[in-house]
Amino acid sequence: MIRYELTEVPEVAGMHQPSTTQTSRVVDKEMPRISIITVCKDARHTIPDTIESVRAQRYPNIEYIIVDGASTDGTQQIIEEYSDTIHISICEEDSGIFEAMNKGASIASGEFLLYLNAGDTLLRPETIESIIAAISRLPEADIYHGDIVWFDPRTGKSAYKSAKEVNRTYLFRGAMSHQAMLIRKSAFERVGQYEQSYMIGGDYEWSLRAFHEFNLRFQIIPVCFTVFELGGLSSTDTHRETMHDEFSHARNKYFSKFDTFKIRIIVRFQKIFGI
Hints:
By secondary structure, the chain is α/β, with parallel strands linked by helices. It is 33% helix and 20% strand. Strand 2 (62-68), helix 2 and strand 3 (88-91) form a beta-alpha-beta unit. The protein starts with 33 loop residues before the first strand and ends with a helix.
C-alpha cells in the first residue's frame, strides 16, 4: 500500500469552485463518444460539484450517466435539476459500488468509459478535450491513464500524482485511480465486469485481471484528469482493514508466492533509493 503525503499544490487552487455555465456543444460524428459514469448514494453535498464539472466540459460528444443507489437524502432531487446535463439516470438499490459501476458500463453507448465518483471533479473545462487530443497523437491502447490531484477537504491540502508506467511491480504496489483512466468499452467488455464480491478493491482486481489475463495495452497521456476527493470508502479508517484484505486477496489471485517475493525485494530497493 503506497502512502501519500499531502502537500499544497498552488496551481490547482480553487479546484472546488465549478463553473455554473453550461458549455454549448456541437457534436462532430468523427469525435469518439465518452461515457462518463458517476455512481453515488446519499451524496447531496458532493454531487453538485461533480455534475457541474461535467456540465462545463467543452468537448461536445459526452454521454453522462448517473447510477444512484436509492438515496434518501435528496440526491435524486439534485440529479433531476440537472436533466439538461445527465443523459441517463438510474435510481435503485444495489449491493455496492461495483454493482453500480457495472450497471453504468452496461448501458453506456460511448467508445470510452470514464468513472467519476460523487465528489470528484474533472480538473478543467477543457479536460476531456485535452484527453481526446492527446490520444489522437499516441499509439492505440485499451486504457489511457493520466495524472490526478488528491484533495483532502478536511485539511484543504492537495497532492499532484503523475501517471506511472503500468507494469507488474507498479500494480503489485497498489491500485490505479479509476478516476484517471479512460477505458475503451470494447476492452472493458473483453475483461468482464467488476467483481461485486469486493467492497473496496473491485477496481484493483479488475486492473490486475486486465493486465495479467488479457494483456490490455496501457498508455500514459500527459493530461491531469481529475481532482479526487479523499473521504470515500477506501479513504476512511473504518474500511482500511477491509481494503488491505481485499487487495491481498486480489494479489494472491494474480501473483505467485515467488513473484511476490521478487517484487517485494524490488519495492524495498525502490524505497531505499527513492525510485
